[in-house]
Structure formats: C-alpha cells, structure tokens
C-alpha cells in the first residue's frame, strides 16, 4: 500500500512538473513588450518611422485604439506628499537613490506598475513607482521618501532633475521631429513593431524616463 501511494505521489509530482514546463514554454513564446525611445522621422497613416536613441530605424504600427499621452514639463512643487510618481534613479553608496528623472502620474493612473525594478535608461538605473511619503528641503535640492507595497526608498532630487507629468495627448502631436517613448511595443514576425500606447514629449521635450 505504501509503495502504491509512493508511486502515485511520483506520478502526481511528475504531472505537475510537466504542466509547469508547458506553462513556462508557453510564457517564453509570448512576445515580450519592448521600450522604444527616439524621434519620429515619418508618419504614414498608422505607421510611425522612428529613429531610436541607439541610431537604428524602427517602424511601429499603432493599433486602432491607440492611446496617445503627452509628457509635459512641470516643477518639483507639484511633487507633494500623497502624489503617485515614477522615479528613474541611480543607486548611491549610502543606499539611497539619486533621481535622474521624475514623472508624476495623474490620479487615474495611481498604482500603475507599483514597485521598484531595473530600468534601461542608463546602466544600473531603476524605476520606482510609488507614493510620496514626505519631502525634506536640503541645501542642494530635496530628499523625497517614497513608499510602495514592498518597501520604501529615499531619493535625492537635485535642481537639475527633470520633472514631468502625463497629460492627455492626441495623434496630431505625433509628427516628424517629436520625441517619443513607447513602453510596450511588441515585435512582429516581419520585423516591425506594434503598440497600443505612445507617449510623446510636448513642446520639444525629450521624455526623460
């Protein structure tokens, strides 16, 4: 009887492992969202030709329901306790982060991507989406404490740190010369890309994140 139970347990464990491997394989085959930063070179209907920051050219097709979001300059005065923000940061020797960009989410986007993760703006940079707990003025800028569900970070913000906010945008702003960042492009079999969201810098702004 003990042997029968042992065999059954092994068969059950084996089926779980096989199922896990199948799920992992299926996940690996799913197109992974990509970030594309650059400037629009041409617009042909729903297709944007983008010169990326790396210097190559990519064609990105916008879906029929594409959302265009503007990125506008703002000031540190708009970063208040309770604000939900994204901090593009660099690690410091004392364990804090130095902000190389901050973007303020509108209230409707509160909770978007909450947490801290590696980011690709610069080597070793991170992105932390979190709620501002407090601000402290310092002689060389400000220190902001942000909290998210798994922890908190102290962030140094200098006078040179770009501060931006998301505002409603429209397709008219997607024109040659406009600087954009696409957070979730998917690569198609023909080498082109597709996206349902485009973030565009307003008034000549290069999205700093």
TrEMBL record:
* Keyword Signal set for record: yes
Signal peptide as annotated in the record: 1-28
The domain of life is Bacteria
The UniProt keyword set, sorted, is: Signal
Protein name per its UniProtKB record: DUF5666 domain-containing protein
The species is Tardiphaga robiniae
Give the lineage: Bacteria, Pseudomonadati, Pseudomonadota, Alphaproteobacteria, Hyphomicrobiales
